[in-house]
Amino acid sequence: MKERGLLIVLSGPSGVGKGTVRKAIFSQNDTDFQYSISMTTRKPREGEVDGVDYFFKSKEEFEQLIKEDRLLEWAEFVGNYYGTPIDYVEKTLSEGRDVFLEIEVQGALQVRKAFPEGLFIFLMPPSLSELKNRIVTRGTETQDIINNRMKVAKEEIEMMDAYDYVVENDHVDLACGRIRAIVTAEHCRRDRIALRYKKMLEVE
Ligand SMILES: Nc1nc2c(ncn2[C@@H]2O[C@H](COP(=O)(O)OP(=O)(O)O)[C@@H](O)[C@H]2O)c(=O)[nH]1
Ligand SMILES: Nc1ncnc2c1ncn2[C@@H]1O[C@H](COP(=O)(O)OP(=O)(O)O)[C@@H](O)[C@H]1O
Question: Which residues bind ATP (predicted)?
Answer without folding.
Answer: 12-19
